[in-house]
Write a structure and sequence with these properties.
mainly alpha
């Protein structure tokens, strides 16, 4: 893969796609969350592990939202700015172009996870859960990033406009997150239980709860790790298969 193309796409994700401003905005939001939590923590009825879980969920939500917005505009914005033709004329394969844009967005997502570390440390101050919380944030966050960024890139390839791609990406994220947010209702039926077992976000949240609340070892959580990993692999494979559909007007 052409290293120059990767650097170019990373710079575009950081500057032209307002990735840097999104990192700053995320830092401001996390600062507000950290101030609120640390101010009210003493009078809160929530346990420390519950507070950390809410904080990790907020970090994952912000990271995935920003990354999906950047990913969903990657190719669609090239069409809207009439730069797709010059991009396709470069001596680089479509697969390499896809991976260059993919890695550019992925780096921004990982940067957002790194930015969250001080806030998790501040929120978890006084407990022994901080290393576990950071580990869960990065393990789940990176696997979800790998999958969701790949999905957003696919939408950017097949859709003609950035607006449609962004809206569809956000809708897709809501659909995949929905079972995790109302697990109590889903547990009432066999179909709901099955959905919770394969839903990547639900697996991530359940793994988080097991490690922070029940103190279960990471190596005993294969039933959550496997679906999460498989989902990431499937999404990347789909992105690779869709890369040859990159065109000036999108896939019809």
């Amino acid at each position: 893969m052409n290293g120059h193309i990767i650097k170019k796409e990373f710079k575009e994700s950081l500057y032209d796609s307002k990735g840097l401003w999104m990192i700053v905005a995320t830092s401001v939001i996390l600062s507000g969350l950290c101030f609120l939590v640390t101010t009210l923590k003493e009078g809160s009825v929530l346990a420390q592990n519950d507070i950390l879980q809410y904080a990790i969920k907020a970090v994952l939500f912000l990271t995935l939202t920003v990354s999906m917005v950047l990913g969903s505009t990657s190719f669609a914005s090239e069409r809207e700015e009439n730069t797709m033709e010059s991009l396709l004329l470069t001596p680089v394969s479509k697969l390499s172009l896809s991976f260059a844009k993919y890695l550019g967005v992925l780096v921004i997502g990982v940067a957002l996870l790194i930015v969250s570390i001080p806030y998790l440390i501040a929120i978890g101050a006084g407990s022994a859960l901080i290393p576990t919380a950071i580990f869960i944030t990065f393990f789940s966050g990176i696997l979800l990033l790998i999958a969701f960024v790949a999905l957003s890139l696919i939408l950017s390839i097949v859709m003609k406009s950035s607006k449609s791609s962004i809206l569809t990406s956000i809708l897709l994220m809501i659909v995949l997150t929905f079972p995790a947010l109302i697990q109590g209702i889903f547990k009432l039926s066999p179909i709901g239980i099955f959905i919770l077992k394969i839903d990547p976000v639900a697996c991530s949240f359940n793994m988080m709860s097991k490690m922070l609340t029940d103190r279960v070892s990471f190596f005993a959580l294969g039933s959550y790790i496997l679906p999460l990993t498989l989902f990431a692999v499937v999404c990347v494979v789909l992105m690779i298969s869709c890369s040859n559909k990159i065109a000036l007007k999108g896939e019809k």
